[in-house]
Amino acid sequence: MLKGLYAWAMNLAARKTAVWWLAVIAFVESSIFFLPADVLFLPMVLAKPRKAMFYATVATVASVLGGIAGWYLGHYAFESVARPLLEFYGKLDAFEHLKASVDYETIVLLLITSGLAHLPPIKVVTILSGAANISLGLFIVTAIVTRGARFFVLAGLLQRYGESIRHFIEKRLGMIAALVASALIAVYAVYIFVR
């Protein structure tokens, strides 16, 4: 199923309407869908490197707006909308475990790791943030910084190194994401220990 979705996204990257599809996918990825916008973002930037920063801006804005929608789902429509979505994706147990075991600071850390590296999936954290009543203002600032960092760093790397960096990222994205998330968790652990 994921290979089919990936092929679909690659096909979209070649269309004239690709930038609109990028916005739609980035929006729904942050609130209800599981296909990362990167699968469309990467080929678009490689095809038109001069538009890399424009694509990063579109992806960031749409992703933040999708995150806000996820926050609202968690805050105002958890039982009627968010719970069935999480059940559909098989994420309800993970969500309930997270909700029961996290505090305000941990949710902020999860916003950072999910925004940068999708660990845990961003839609789970956006819904969790709303359900846990995280300040919407803090949520928006965190989303802008982390999602912007993700898309603009990728755009810069792809613009500078082109096809060779794409192969490196595609082969090692999981490892890179895990290393970044581990580093952030280590920083948080040191913060908790020192505090």
Structure description:
The chain is mostly helical. It has ten helices and no strands. The chain has helices at residues 2-13, 18-29, 38-47, 52-76, 78-88, 92-101, 104-117, 122-131, 136-161, 163-194. The longest helix has 32 residues, at 163-194.
List keywords for this structure.
195 residues; mainly alpha; 10 helices
Mean pLDDT: 80
N-end to C-end Cα span = 46 Å
Kindly estimate the percentage of residues that lie in beta strands according to DSSP. Answer: under 5%
Radius of gyration: 17 Å
Helical percent range? over 70%
Major β-sheet profile: none
pLDDT below 50 for ≥5 consecutive residues: which ranges? none
Total helical elements: 10
Q: Can you count the beta strands?
A: 0
Q: Judging from the principal axes of the Cα atoms, what is the shape?
A: globular
SS class: mainly alpha
Sequence of secondary-structure elements? HHHHHHHHHH
Compact summary:
Helices cover 83% and strands 0% of the residues.
Topology, element by element:
Blueprint (H helix, E strand, L loop, with lengths): L1 H12 L4 H12 L8 H10 L4 H25 L1 H11 L3 H10 L2 H14 L4 H10 L4 H26 L1 H32 L1
Helix pairs in contact: 1-3, 2-3, 2-4, 3-4, 3-9, 4-5, 4-8, 4-9, 7-8, 7-9, 7-10
